[in-house]
Model the fold of this input.
Amino acid sequence: MSKTKVICFANNKGGSGKSTTCVNVGYEMALTGKKVLLIDGDMQMNLTLSFFDDSMTFSFVESGKTLYEGLKAEKDLAPYIVHTGYPNLDLIPSSSEMSSIEFELFPRWQREFILRKCLSHIVASGTYDFILMDAPPTLGCWVMNMLCASDELVIPVEASPWGLFGVAKMNDFVRQVQTIAPQLHVMGIAVTKADERKKYLREMLDTLHESDMPVFETIIRIDSTIEWSQDNSKPVGAYKRNSRSANEYANLAKEILNHVSR
Done:
């Protein structure tokens, strides 16, 4: 690969498995030898809490080593990187202060490109093969910032009767972003929390495949191992390597790697 690829995981509907997908795809990429930086862009801090317990997560906040502090100062984000404890896998932590990021960005010059500017040195350095970003479940100035800084978009969609709500709105929002960030490409929809016993799963998949958005072949099924791994602040592949969900995330990571190598 000639340069760092920036991939955003976003969906305006909460509960889509967005943070979980970002965490586990990043971990599986790192296992293949790729250098990966994860960026937690959500005030709920789920990405950060997937690697660190509460006390360590809040120590980042107290020391100012968070994405919010870097964005507020419009600084190079490299000093805010922490190591996850896993080979090839680093993280820029979030904080609850991200709840005010829309207010912080709104009055600034070229506000849609502040994250891109703050990431520019990291991207130009080529230190990482991939930067994976977890966006909050909203569609506003901050998510627009994240998409403007990205090359690719992955949209996790929960396999439920409500999972499709908002996909069309997300697609419209992406098209708006592409008018100012034409490099942004929708890599695909990743179906999560699938239950093969439910009839609506096949109906949902049929609907997605009829849309104009690509859909990944790998489906992430419901698995309690995911919840246990989260409770232990570990990626599922680190918590239980031989689990079904670890295998599924490894396959999804493989699909993503194959896509960007084309």
